[in-house]
Amino acid sequence: MSVDFLKEVAKPVMAGLGITARRLRNKKVTISYPEQRREQYPRTRWRHALTRYDSGLERCIGCSLCAGACPARCIYVEAAPNTDEDRKSPGERYAVRYEINMIRCIFCGFCQEACPTGAIVLRKEFELADYHREDFIYTKEMLLEPIRDEA
Fold first, then answer.
1. pTM higher than the cut 0.85
2. Is 106 domain-assigned?
3. Strands (E), the chain
């Protein structure tokens, strides 16, 4: 082997070891998860939620614009008409079935941007792990925020 070849091989290796040595001198930051949580970035997008109006009515009107905007095609919306006796949303229709396949979701936020009523939002809750594939199909009941009690 020539000396030039060894220099060419040793040069990147030594540069990498230098970077490692500099990083070892930095102060280590340890967070006791889950008691303490790291600050999330402002544009973080994780778990989906279906929001409500202050009156308790659902914001989702079953328009399926979120499903149309989704590049992963992971959202399914089935709409039904509202009646005066059983009003779920302020519009003519409401989502009788709303499902998101979280395995397919790429958390792009297009559904949130496409929604005209602001019904679907992506929150900063990132604990989405589960053990069974069927548990990753989030239904309307799982996504819908509870009604706030005004006391």
1. no
2. yes
3. 48-50, 75-81, 93-101, 120-122, 137-138
